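Module 6 notes. Inverse folding takes a fixed backbone as the condition and produces residue identities as the prediction. Think of it as a translation problem where the source language is geometry and the target language is the twenty amino acids. Below is one complete input and output pair. Work through it position by position during the lab.
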């Protein structure tokens, strides 16, 4: 049987959902359950996926023998660049305001929206959950992430016997959750069809279609402009002034890896090429590449972090919700954590967006709005993710006194 690649299936699903939504709006009540099932699937995996991904990530890093100066420096750089990326996105999304004026009209019907207006103070207090099981049950993401980090960290502090057992357990659990997530993502075309045809039908009967289309276009433009600013201005400046290396030469060495990142939309799949280029073309030592890059492929995702924030604020705008600046800072923090928790596989960022949405109590259904254009944005943000990892390797190597070819 003809087996189409997932992105082709998604494109076909999109085309069909637009046709059905416009010409047969009555029929969407028979298909919208597919969207609901797909979203339920995503919601089902999100808590165990984040928990296992963070616990195993932290437990593995903490256990590495070189975790010390190098580890702190690398993590510091990763958090700094991710924050810079998110702030770039924050500026662009507030200036362009891509979702402003669509008004999906769900505002009244969405419950839980009240928590979007939670005060900054109470959001911060919720970081430490008083009952972890309640946090699991209510999707209190910040609390879950905090608990996972603490759990991962203290796993490295117990007796060797227990440490190995628990690290292995969480690694294995994470692998299984990834498999389940990939399985659910296979149904994305059907889910997209269910969700998008419903949105199109609703907007078409209200005569708003052109406006939703142009808002989505503006949203893509916002993400792309912010990604370009981060990749072509911020990161090269860091390489030049902090790393004292030549960003243009470094970029030339990275071309193959970056193109692979773009076409696979997976930092993990690109990792071997990234390592090869950084080690043999740039001349960074194996000690640094083998520590910095694998860690970066799972933890450091500047493009994803930026995208998480822009997408969540776009969704808020589309629901006609003005998120106050203080709340937006909570979202910055959530986007950072979501990008850390995202796996380096295609569409992982899309799954993690539910984290940012739930932190401020936005309806997860909003994901349906951005699904349509996720493919191309995934390719672009993955390229930025890999570009940032490789730049970090160069900067760290220089700071450790290595002589490089760039
Ligand atoms: N695809 C991205 C990556 O592998 C993650 C994401 O979906 O944002 O880096």
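Target side of the pair, the amino acids:
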């Amino acid at each position: 049987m003809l087996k189409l690649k997932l992105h082709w299936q998604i494109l076909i699903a999109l085309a069909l959902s637009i046709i059905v939504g416009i010409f047969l709006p009555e029929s969407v009540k028979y298909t919208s359950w597919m969207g609901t099932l797909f979203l339920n699937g995503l919601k089902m995996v999100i808590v165990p996926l984040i928990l296992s991904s963070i616990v195993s990530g932290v437990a593995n890093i903490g256990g590495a023998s070189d975790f010390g100066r190098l580890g702190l420096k690398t993590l510091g750089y990763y958090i700094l660049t991710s924050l810079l990326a998110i702030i770039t996105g924050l500026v662009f999304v507030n200036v362009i305001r891509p979702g402003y004026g669509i008004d999906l009209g769900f505002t009244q019907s969405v419950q839980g929206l009240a928590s979007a207006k939670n005060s900054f103070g109470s959001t911060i207090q919720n970081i430490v959950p008083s009952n972890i099981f309640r946090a699991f049950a209510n999707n209190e993401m910040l609390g879950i992430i905090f608990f996972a980090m603490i759990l991962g960290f203290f796993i490295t502090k117990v007796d060797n016997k227990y440490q190995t057992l628990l690290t292995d357990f969480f690694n294995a659990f994470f692998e299984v959750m990834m498999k389940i997530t990939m399985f659910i993502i296979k149904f994305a075309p059907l889910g997209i069809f269910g969700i998008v045809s419903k949105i199109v039908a609703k907007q078409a009967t209200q005569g708003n279609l052109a406006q939703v289309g142009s808002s989505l276009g503006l949203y893509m433009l916002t993400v792309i402009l912010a990604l370009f600013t981060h990749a072509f201005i911020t990161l090269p400046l860091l390489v030049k002034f902090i790393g004292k290396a030549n960003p243009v030469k470094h970029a030339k060495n990275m071309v193959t890896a970056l193109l692979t990142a773009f076409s696979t939309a997976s930092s993990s799949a690109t990792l071997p090429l990234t390592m090869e280029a950084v080690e043999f073309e740039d001349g960074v030592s194996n000690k640094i590449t083998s520590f910095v890059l694998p860690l970066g492929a799972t933890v450091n995702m500047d493009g994803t972090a930026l995208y998480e924030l822009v997408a969540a604020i776009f969704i808020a705008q589309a629901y006609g919700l003005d998120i106050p600046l203080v709340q937006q800072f909570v979202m910055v923090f959530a986007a950072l954590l979501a990008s850390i928790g995202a796996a380096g596989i295609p569409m992982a960022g899309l799954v993690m967006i539910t984290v940012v949405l739930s932190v401020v109590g936005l309806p997860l259904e909003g994901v349906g709005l951005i699904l349509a254009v996720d493919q191309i944005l995934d390719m672009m943000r993955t390229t930025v993710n890999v570009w940032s990892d490789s730049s970090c390797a160069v900067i760290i190597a220089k700071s450790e006194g290595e002589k490089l070819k760039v």
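Reference fact for the lab report: The chain has one domain: 2-61+74-399.
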